[in-house]
Design goal:
The structure is a homodimer. The first copy, chain A, is of the alpha/beta class. Chain A has 13 helices and 13 strands. In chain A, the strands form 4 sheets. Chain A has a 7-stranded mixed beta sheet, sandwiched between helices. A two-stranded antiparallel ribbon of chain A has the order 7-8.
Chain lengths: 360, 360
């Protein structure tokens, strides 16, 4: 087992990465300070891993809640179900919530923990590659709104993250690829060497080679932990983690939550961001081709849905947390391995990208 | 104008107390860092003060939302209306929210500000005595749940509090008295001298004597600011501000939100807490009589509703943020001017109080 630290002063916490971690009660118990524990999970994960987790905690007052699976359920209504359950059980402010699932469960569980009685402790047990390398680390929690992704939420850090690589064995192919989109992101924004490594090892990752996956997870979490430690609430460098996300969120919101996996939308969004970076003469044609090729090789979509034309994209992108006073701001790439901070985009270039990239 | 500081490091902010403050644009503008401003208010306050506030900000992109008035509307649904409005207006993370109203508007506006895009700036403009002396100061935000008061929320500090004493001219009598309940609380928990002053000056306060009210507001805010500076997230002394509140919340939830004003329920709850403190031989009979007399004199109820019997009280009190692992914990009084920290209550004594105090 490897342990990485997210260094946030009093709110610091460990990320445990390794095999068989779901069956190690001491890892859980170390971070649970109370008798009352609730596990939040979904209909996909519950039949596979819920019992294993519950078994670790049979000497606690333990409850669980199984929510439907999918981005379309990442809503205030689902979070309300968590509140209802906590209150029906009369759980106190010293209770602990365990989020056992992918990014949707982690984001909602974390947000429920942030708000229940103004904050209870929570543990992240990510069960998808995407959640292990990205969404479970760093304390961004929240839900979607019909008008925008992740528009309601809180910065709220967990007590620990337990990333058990074994759970990836049961992950379907589409989810594995979606996770790779965020892995590739770290290479693009700050780690050219990692990007090169990914180009050489992508087949091993797709074949779920344990040691390649472990390397990718650890390397991704290390990048994420460093960024979050530097800028917890996204006043600066943390925004670079949003490469491709403004386009991606527009796709998810525009097409309907759940249609694309988050990682799939991010892959397309990153290709759009790369195309726009090329129009700024920051990336070369060859750079953009390499980026698109790596996403394609990872079995990810690289072309935006035909139903979203440039006008609709712009409308959807007007709602984004990086925008200031309504102006669209994006993360772009100066080169492979170096992202910009949010830049006010040149409207003409943005429209060119939206009208031409991937369009017939 | 007096200025008090709530000293919370980077999150420090001023409380402005005085006359005519609603018409001083510079007070507002000093704390608004962006172009986009939304005012959240209610149907009682909007016709009286909304225009005055909007006039201060006519050079901003300004929107407003008028919510129904009353504790029964302090819900996630109302907060969702605020999110809908903010998103419909495409407001950014650098927008500012102004909460113009009593405790309900302040708590919901603050919570919406805490969660919208994971946190936007907000200003508190309390328009009731209760909000001026208590709920607008200290960053407790949130909403009620059918099973418990203030069960969903966040600690989230405003940029400033603007307490304009003139708004109390339009406050109805019942609301004025409700505010006095929280004023009296400060005397009881940490300021015996202030309690004595209140006993002598209660008639002036009820007659809305400007200088008596100003003294009471300033003194209350000073007490609150000191406590919050010492313990922002209620791990210790801040809990003393909850004197009478566990009983009070049980009344509000049990009878139905909006039936009692919060201050009215707190008055009854504080009398119950005083009775229980007497059973611990901390307060004397004379102390308890003085406390009840001051609430009565303030035109506040001092007897719990007949419909809530001891059993129902205990059930409702089982959901409280001070409880640990389901055990009821209360703030009691060691003497007038000195509160305990949360104590595990002796069940027998608690039942005696619930069965006998104020019962025929």
């Amino acid at each position: 087992m490897k342990t990485l630290l997210v260094a946030l002063g009093k709110r610091s916490y460990p990320i445990y990465i390794g095999s068989g971690l779901l069956s190690r009660p001491e890892l859980f118990k170390k971070h649970i300070k109370s008798r009352q524990v609730i596990v939040i999970t979904n209909t996909t994960i519950a039949p596979i891993y819920l019992d294993t987790v519950l078994k670790n905690l049979d000497d606690y007052v333990i409850e669980y809640l199984v929510l439907p699976d999918g981005e379309q359920y990442k809503t205030l209504d689902s979070v309300t179900q968590i509140f209802d359950k906590l209150l029906a059980c009369k759980f106190s402010r010293n209770a602990t919530l365990i989020a056992l699932g992918g990014g949707v469960i982690g984001d909602m569980g974390g947000f429920a923990a942030a708000c229940y009685q103004r904050g209870i402790a929570f543990l992240q047990i990510p069960t998808t590659l995407l959640a292990q390398v990205d969404s479970s680390v760093g304390g961004k929690t929240g839900v979607n709104h019909p008008l925008g992704k992740n528009m309601i939420g809180a910065f709220y850090q967990p007590q620990c993250v337990i990333a058990d690589a074994d759970v990836l064995d049961t992950l379907d192919e589409r989810q594995l690829s979606a996770g790779l989109a965020e892995v590739i992101k770290y290479g693009l924004i700050r780690d050219a060497g990692f990007f090169n490594w990914l180009e050489q090892n992508i087949d091993l990752l797709l074949a779920r080679d344990k040691s390649a996956l472990a390397y990718a997870i650890e390397h991704s979490c290390k990048n994420k932990a460093e960024i979050v430690a530097e800028d917890e609430t996204e006043t600066g460098v943390r925004a670079t983690l949003n490469l491709g996300h403004t386009f991606g969120h527009a796709i998810e919101t525009g097409v309907g939550y759940g249609e694309y996996l988050h990682g799939e939308a991010v892959a397309i969004g990153t290709c759009l961001a790369a195309d726009l970076s090329r129009r700024h003469a920051w990336l070369t044609d060859v750079d953009v081709e390499r980026i698109i090729a790596l996403f394609k090789h990872s079995r990810l979509p690289v072309v935006p849905p035909a139903q979203l034309d440039a006008g609709r994209f712009l409308e959807l992108m007007a709602v984004d947390k990086k925008n200031i006073d309504g102006k669209i701001r994006l993360i772009l790439l100066k080169k492979i391995g170096l992202a910009t901070l949010p830049v006010d985009v040149d409207r003409e270039r943005l429209e060119l990208t939206l009208k031409t990239y991937g369009r017939k």
